[in-house]
Amino acid sequence: MSLFTRAGSALFDLLAPLECAACGQPAAHGYCGDCRRLLVAAPARDLEGVPVLAAAAYAAPLDAAIHRYKYGSRPDLAGALAGLLPRAALAGASGDARTLFVPVPLHRSRLAERGYDQSALLASALAARAGRPASARALCRTRPTAQQARLDERGRAQNVLGAFSAGGGTALAQRPVVLVDDVVTTGATARACVHTLRAAGARVVAVACVASTPR
């Protein structure tokens, strides 16, 4: 791991709040003992032949932590959430030194509304833990989309159809890529991003997320 990535990992640890990401009670390492014991293993799944690496199932108490992170103006929780994904899983997915961690992007209007890109922060934290680079410009969202959580499975697929393009300035041809998102539910968003990355020549080796639902 380079000095830069070690410093990045240490910075996320330094900025981690001394409270449980899920319930807000005092906790030294991101989660109190009660919430950590309640985490449920994520189901094994893949998207378009790409393995989904999820820290845990999208269920209580992790769903509360993710909601605080995304909608409660808590970008400081990125390190605690990323820290749930085992280093062994990250190492297995990013064995090639050229592996790039790429977040599912927000549209600029949603970014202005929220003030931060939750997936970009997660990608940076995961990349720092793996000792690999991250790029928030490898993908861009070309148009605003409705919130996926408010749509059914068919609506989600239609919502993100053609909504992404490969960003300029990032060499993707034959490059291993780990796609990063906060939650994978139906997989519509991640699937659209995988298609876009592959069309740009990237080799998507994994989809990394904090939580996943069974399929």
- Going by helix content, strand content and strand pairing, the class is alpha/beta
Under CATH, the topology can be stated as Rossmann fold
Count up the domains: 1
* Largest β sheet strand count, sense and barrel closure: 5 strands, mixed
Low-confidence stretches: 1-12
Q: Strand order of the main beta sheet, please? A: 1-2-7-6-3
Q: Could you estimate the helical fraction of the residues in percent? A: 25-40%
Q: Estimate the mean pLDDT confidence.
A: 88
Description:
- The protein has 215 residues and is of the alpha/beta class.
- It has one domain: Rossmann fold (3-Layer(aba) Sandwich), CATH 3.40.50.
- It is 37% helix and 18% strand.
- It has nine helices and seven strands; from the N terminus they run ααββαααβααβαββαβ.
- It has helices at residues 3-15, 33-38, 62-71, 78-82, 87-93, 108-114, 118-130, 153-159, 188-199; strands at residues 46-47, 50-57, 100-103, 139-141, 164-166, 176-184, 203-212.
- Strands 1-2-7-6-3 form a five-stranded mixed sheet, sandwiched between helices.
- β6, α9 (188-199) and β7 form a beta-alpha-beta unit.
- α1 packs across α7.
- The longest helix is centred in the N-terminal third of the chain and has 13 residues, at 3-15.
- 45% of the residues are buried.
